[in-house]
Write the structure tokens for this entry.
Amino acid sequence: MKRDVRILLLGEAQVGKTSLILSLVGEEFPEEVPPRAEEITIPADVTPEKVPTHIVDSSAEQTVEELQDEIHKANVVCVVYDVSEEATIEKIRTKWIPLVNGGTENGPRVPIILVGNKSDLRPGSSMEAVLPIMSQFPEIETCVECSAKNLKNISELFYYAQKAVLHPTAPLYDPETKQLRPACTQALTRIFRLSDQDVDQTLSDEELNAFQKTCFGHPLAPQALEDVKMVVHKHVAGGVRDDRLTLDGFLFLNMLFIQRGRHETTWTILRRFGYSDTLELSTDYLFPPLHVPAGCSTELNHFGYQFVQRVFEKHDQDHDGALSQAELQELFSVFPAAPWGPQLLREVRTEAGRLTLHGYLCQWTLVTYLDVRRCLEHLGYLGYPTLCKQDSQAHAITVTREKRLDQEKGQTQRNVLLCRVVGARRVGKSAFLQAFLGRGLGHQDAEEYHKMPAGYAIDTVQVNGQEKYLILCEVDADSLLSTSPDAACDVACLMFDSSDHRSFAICTSVYKRHYMDGQTPCLFVSSKADLPEGVSLPGLSPAEFCRRHRLPAPTPFSCAGPGEPSTAIFTQLATMATFPYLVHGELHTTSFWLRVTLGAVGAAVAAVLSFSLYRVLVRSR
């Protein structure tokens, strides 16, 4: 909505433009009227819509160029005529409207308010003469008859002018076809679907009242609710079904508001759900400010997870714990296009091609971590700020502390960890990612999943009793050696083919270039462990290299065989990421917790000995 309104008064000489402005400001008819009033500004706190309003006068002394410059700056134009002079009415059609919108046949037109002044000089109404003009020019919002002398309808005309700017009819309604415009229908359809909590294509009384409370702050009285449905039932076939309001009925109600001059009602609904004056979701709504300092990451917090889980449960119509393609399509119906592409089913765990709640939450976690701006946009389309009564969907996001602080503390508080899986081509990186999702080479759909690598895979891993999301990101080693991309991560998995020792040499080059001097934990993984070992090359063996650099011994891995691949290696990677200070020490979780336990026991023994010594000293005294 615009932050201020600029109103320009045009019309023939002596029709009372200046008198109208001075009567509004002085609340009395001026005895002396200057040729042209100075521009005045009405403060926001005294206007009905609570926005500052600028009122600009014009005079016959101004040139056409000067008038066009004022028209260009105006948000709305009031064309004033004298109700007692028919010649001034005819000038509306022949002079003033062409001047205002003559060059905008294909573009947006400035809204116009017709103002019939001097109603005190004519006993009847001029509306009969004005109606044909209003029918000819759709940019005319309304016509107000008033009297500057008697102060009749002065405040009303400026209210209607302000309303024409803040709640314009043109984007909503086509007066020629007497139908809602397509963009308005599309926006209201999205709002209807967001309000339809049980996805039965209708709004129950409870859903209608929740919608009413969301938009206007209070529910409808029971009788008012019945009256609304009665009006819809009377005018729209199928507008009410089983005592519930259908989409057709909902659209008809909004069209009725507009036709009766209450388009501010429809605008209140649209703006409450994030729409701008162009009937698109505003940038401020979709992309609220969220500061993410360098070294920090983004995660959904419990508010975010609760919301997206409610969305899942809403669309899981058969309550089987998974979304079919049809259910997923219904969930995506409030988006302009499907937000998740075909790679979705290769990035998360699925069940017979359907998206389970677990996989769905993993996908939200992945999007939030990799592209929080896109996550905010998706939450906006799902109506998070409106339905959760929050200022913005940034409320659903947690920004983690800097990675540097995690390294200083020796432990991360992050719930989402990134592992870059780096290796030469054809060493089995894609198979490793799919194995993480339980799809070994013996999986029934292995060929389909492995022929189109996704680049990412995400699943949950237990680390010492805590659930962590682990993201595996496939990275070609050549890209890390030929350029200088971002190699930062929580843990690096350097993968080489046990049957091809040249692939190990590539991993050592990546390690020396990106990770050797840093604090990122690294694990060398020997893939295709089910195949015979290749011929050793001159130089250090993988085991010797790791020992010399104080790294864990290379971990063998194979995803061949009919069973589900072992998850131990993924738990090891997540543990290394959670406790990064173990990068140069013993990395087995059992030995780590053994040291913690021994340390605690040692502290307890020291405390007991200190207390015993204290008692001996007291007795000796």
